[in-house]
Amino acid sequence: MKSITLLGATGSIGLRTLDLVSSFPEEFSVAGLAARGSNVERVADLCKKYSPRAVALLEADARDQLARLLPAPRPELLAGPDGLVALARDVKADIVVSALVGGAGLLPTMAAIQAGRTVALANKETLVMAGRLMTAAARARGVKLLPVDSEHSAVFQCLAGHSRADVHRILLTASGGPFRETPKARLATVTVEDALQHPTWKMGAKITIDSATLMNKGLEVIEARWLFDVASDQVQIVVHPQSIVHSMVEYIDGCVIAQLGVADMGVPILYALTYPERRPMPTARLDLVRAGQLTFYEPDLDKFPCLRLARTALDSVSSAPVVLNAANEVAVAAFLDRRIGFNAIAELIEEALNTSRAGELDSIEACTAVDADTRRSVQRAIDTRHGARPS
After folding, report:
1. For position 117, which CATH number holds?
2. Coil, strand or helix: which one is 346?
3. H or E segment to which residue 4 belongs
4. What total of structural domains would you count in the chain?
5. Distance from the Cα of residue 87 to its chain's centroid
6. Nearest to residue 335, comparing CAs of 183, 193, 175, 123?
7. Which of 123, 130, 169, 349 could form a disulfide with 327 if both were Cys (CB 3.0 to 4.6 A apart)?
8. How many Cβ atoms from other residues are within 10 Å of residue 193's Cβ?
9. Do 119 and 227 have their domain in common?
10. 320-336 vs 124-141: helix crossing angle, rounded to 10
């Protein structure tokens, strides 16, 4: 039986992972759970159902609330960023599922790697922020980084049994998001509700907005560069509205291998948990006849500048992706809070990249320092440009 520590237990990936634990009780157990702590009642319910040995909540005040909700004997309760790191590092587990949203996953994921634990990676921001450092640490410790994102899991599967030297390029597919057919001129007035209407996937708010701006694909380009050790120009984006081809790998002889399937995050999660084996999955099966026509086209970089900004950051100094990610997280939060418009997300990110004086990164501490500085700078820019919170 594999024991799992789950970082991000109350998010969409975390809850789907726990569904799989319930579906395969003879295969998986829960060693540790971590969450931000905004839904303490949900965490308490998960503790009662899955009996983890330890629980970490990013929001320190939530630990006391959780303690009051759990009967004795309760799991060890940890709190704050240090608590998440301790959970990932010290609680014995066969695999750590890194599914926290945003930069909060950086330090605990690195702690899991340094502890020699296999990591199922659903937190793309960790490789965006510290790809060189993360992959170097994984190599040094002999740690497997198993992708959970549907696109990167698809690439991972298409690479199986082939030499990386034979790879010509990686083709990451994108649904195009809710504004795929929306004229550029209308994007200035789209609402939060509009942006949260993803046509294919049911995800958390932050990643859904990233899909609307196509920043999600930009982050995935950076993640793929490090995860698969390829050059920036070997990773390309193809818009595929049907979301059936999850990604492709083209080899030097012109052969293209694709991974296809229904849109169900349970499939890549379970593959990461059972790798290198597979298990029967109680999910809908792909019917190509019913699926009909599959279409592909290039993304519109003028309409979706976040994709261009991500590539610019990847090809710049190593701190630039940290700036990109931090600026994006702050800007997306402000958009969800209705403080800024949709187009301001890209504008704030570009301003942050243009004004940042950060250079090369040689440590996780330097990475977190750039992250914190950028967040403060972008927040000041939002306060200056957009004033007080609208009524």
Report:
1. 3.40.50.720
2. helix
3. strand 2-7
4. 3
5. 20
6. 193
7. 349
8. 7
9. no
10. 140
Q: Could you give the C-alpha distances from 229 to 96, 178, 367, in angstroms and in order? A: 22, 31, 20
- Clarify whether residues 114 and 83 are in a common domain: yes
- Which tokens go with 103? 């930069």
In terms of Cα–Cα distance, which of 207, 188, 185 is closest to 196? 207
Dist CA 94 CA 1 (whole Å): 9
The reply to whether 111 and 169 lie within a common domain is: no
Residue 275 domain-assigned (yes or no) = no
Residue range of the domain that includes 55: 2-147
Q: Exposed/middle/buried for 321, CB within 10 Å: 0-12, 13-18, 19+? A: buried
At residue 323, what are phi and psi to the nearest 5 degrees? Answer: -60, -45
User: pLDDT tens track of the chain, all 391 residues?
Assistant: 999 999 999 999 999 999 999 999 999 999 999 999 889 999 999 999 999 999 999 988 899 999 999 988 899 999 999 999 999 999 999 999 999 988 889 999 999 999 999 999 999 889 999 999 999 999 999 999 999 999 999 999 999 999 999 999 999 999 999 999 999 999 999 999 999 987 776 778 898 999 999 999 999 999 999 999 999 999 999 999 999 999 999 999 999 999 999 989 999 999 999 999 999 988 889 999 999 999 999 999 999 999 999 999 999 989 999 999 999 999 999 999 999 999 999 999 999 999 998 789 999 999 999 999 999 999 999 998 766 444 3
Alpha-carbon distances of 130 from 103, 217, 371, rounded to whole Å: 10, 17, 11
pTM of the model: 0.93
* Shared-domain flag, residues 41 and 116: yes
- The phi, psi pair for 129, rounded to 5°, reads -75, -40
293 found inside a domain: yes
CATH number of residue 343's parent domain: 1.10.1740.10
